[in-house]
Batch of 4 targets.
Target 1
Amino acid sequence: MKEIRSLVHPNLVAVWPGMGQVAINAGIYLISKLKMEFSLELDESKLFDVDHIEIKDGRVQTIRRPRNLFFVWEDPLRKNDLILFLGEGQPSHGKYNFCQKIINLANESQVEKVFTFAAMATQMPPHSKSRTFGVGTGTAELSNLKNLDVEILMEGNISGMNGILLGVAAELGKNGYCLLGEIPHIFGALPFPKATLAILETFTSMLDINLDLAELSEQVAEHEKEIEMALEQIHANQLSEEKESAPLHQANESFETNAVNAEELQKIEELFQAAKGDRSKSFELKKELDRSGLFKEYEDRFLDLFKKNNQP
């Protein structure tokens, strides 16, 4: 794999978009706060079909397929280095072969364990602490999860690449885990940072990684206030009996933002400049792009922040 030197006890983390943006935001937080280095872009565009086009200012935009990027972090304590794979989208076909390619690339760097992140939708009250659920490839992995008070997912399935990659890893003789952060089912279409925090707390404990989670904790506190306001609105709507489907519909509607104004666009530009100089500020930029609903529009530019020519 390009530019990967002799890594010390390397582990692979793989993330894709999914419910609550739980996994993808966990990956971006790791890239940002650990100042991971971009290593390799895997061209698998043939696996991604196109089902729509983007329009901006009345003009048809160039078709783009999701990118597949590898990042590397060398632990300054020389204990557990990381390789992080970030996929912008899940392929429409060829998932198994794609996962084999990812694991084979990781094997070139002698990766020891494979981790995937995902969301677990339950009936949890929105203000409750998110639990971390987990599965492992063997008895030792299950024992490690239990020692960290992770709830074992005893039955069921994990759909998508989060599950398939772990299955392929086990098939090819690699041990690993899938960590799932708990989210309320009615908020599945919205970012839920509490679940991201739960996953990263567990993950960093497992690998003894010193990761500053303060910014993510602050986002959780802000999100709690937004939830409280949304639930108050839901309750008011229920009392007025405006819509029978108020709980689910209004929960999503309450988080919708108005059209982005010039001041907000200026703030985004300022955050881009700040993140170019200090990549640890890129998660603040990600939060603002999520809040304004513009992450997809700026996704390429955001991920390009981590290319070599943008590093301080």
Target 2
Amino acid sequence: DSPDILLEFDKVFIDEENVLVIQTARVQKSQVVIKFEGVNSIDDAEKLRNMVLYADRDDFELGENDYFVQDLIGLEVFDVASNVLYGVISDVLQTGANDVYVVKGEKELLIPAISDVIIETDIKNNKMLIKPLVGLFDS
């Protein structure tokens, strides 16, 4: 997603026991500049360099048709009209214009994540219904 999403958080985690509370945050060019409570010097900040920080997924406010990539991986993809199983989502490619779902079945298929194609995404029941555009699977 865009760097702006990081502005929504009050805290991030280094691990289960170490929490960093965000004092201020702003987007500068395509990066987020964050001031953490208790990090008051260059030496303190250097200790955090290259660390992976985590956020609680409950702290994300997802839109109606927004999903975590990890929740899409493994979904079974069916044709909405014929109920034919095309395969399982194995990857999500972020292309800029729209995401593309990589579906592995008899053949590997690339499915654009657009409303004309994706009819329903049902995370709870591990399935996605699609309506392929004419010629989408021609090769």
Target 3
Amino acid sequence: MPSKATAPAIERRDHLTHRGNCKHTRYGWLRLTPAFSVHLIRDLVEALPVGASVLDPFCGTGTTALVCADEGVYCETSDINPFLLWLASAKTAHYSAAEIEEARTAAARVSRELSTGNGHAPWLPPLFQIEKWWDPPILRELGRTRAFIEDESKTISSRGLNLLKISFCRSMIELANVSFGHQSMSFKQPDGHGQMELVLSTNQTELVARKWREATDSIIKAAQSSLKASPRCVHCDARNLTSGLQRDFFDCVITSPPYPNRMSYIRELRPYMYWLGYLEDARKAGELDWEAIGGTWGCATSNLSKWEPPEREIPFSGFSSILNRISKSSSLLSRYVHKYFCDMTLHVRELSHVVKPGGSIHYIVGNSKFYDVLLPVEQIFASMFEEVGFTQVKSTVIRKRTSKRELFEYDVTGRKP
């Protein structure tokens, strides 16, 4: 049986969360609340031998790939979400002086167009109830900004254009009526206090232009940083890694998969994906979330209600009992947990084929709680790793999470013999 980690008194260690990912570097270009720590990954990468290859099969915002690029370590990262792969590719790209200069010049042109109040009619994405996200004057100016960027795409390089798009996403989300104070993004309460800057501003055009300038200055400056390696970003389902990755190739896997907590990445990513054209309607959003592991957005929930588990059981003693206890409060959540670990079982089997003999794995996971039922995620992952032949499997507490007192983050490790 895998060794069980206890839950000692341990501090939150905010530097091991997204809070440690500095906004004014490539790591902080776009924020997702679930992003994991640069410092944690760097410690793991720096301990690798020279010439090692790293895999992150759950790309996220590309943090593992960027750390590896900084440290000169070869890395491949994969994901099923094309937007996340685009972001990871943009964050880890080598930008030439010419590309930096054309992005800076184009950003200045957009800023001038915004400040004049003239130019294009706004382009707005088909995001449902978009007026909840931005007040009408702000939305109009964001739409004009996006239209100006589209004009620049006709003459600028793809890498230069990527810097403009990331700058737009940064300024767009900072102007949105949303809060990142909780585990997931939420709308601010309309109490008259949330966005004081917007309330007090008499010139919404200049406010958007200023946010745009601040974003482009920060992002273009960070893009000048030099990287020592070039990661490879692969569009690939984590349950079928061998379709896009070489077998017996990777020395180390460093990743943080989606947690089984019903947090939808599509829900968090909606504003970015709609504005950049990766989503066109809610149906497509739900379908993409259903394809991902742990997704429950839109039609993914109705699909889940009809899902039937395969005959093969999850290799963890007591798993059926956990499902039954959750089912007493919600049969849908019980089904959600079951499907999550069925998908992860498929992933772990594929993982065993792409890690080379002697290779190590590091899975940063968090346990969960459904009603009064604690889900020992780290122990279940350890059991799955052992079932496919990984040895020296153990879980180590990293930090106390900010939510319920029983919830911790763990590093589940093992080695392929």
Target 4
Amino acid sequence: MAMVRAFVPTTLDGLRALASDGAVPAGSPAALPTPGLRALPAAAGADAEELDYLALRVAAAESLRLLAGSGAQRPADLRRVVLAVDVPPSEVAEMDAAGTGRVRLAAPVPLGRVAAVFVDEPSASAAVGDAVAAGGTPDAVADVDLLWYATQEIPDLAG
């Protein structure tokens, strides 16, 4: 079965829920290289890896908005989290009408289809806190890259 890579924004609390529940809930927002994302000026001439990176950045910005809405205050919790998940195209709903790469997952995604986790390093919490204080605008963290973690590291990250 063909799969697409989607990037699911979440928070450390969401990562804890994934570790506990064993699945990303249906209806979760996600980002992927939709035709609309591919048409953006930033995607001109981009290869598949660069398109995935753009979708990751869309999800990271959404993670920041989730943090802004969560009321997270502890510096340890002020970190963006994005899950890279593999889903069949039939499990992607609400395809990107606005050309941003944003979609929703139509079905739960089991932990076994999470390919990787991207998380801010702890030292980025001040910049993330500034971005949260500014209402979740990503400008304060535009130059901060997320670190890649294997799925085996989810319990440590969620701890």
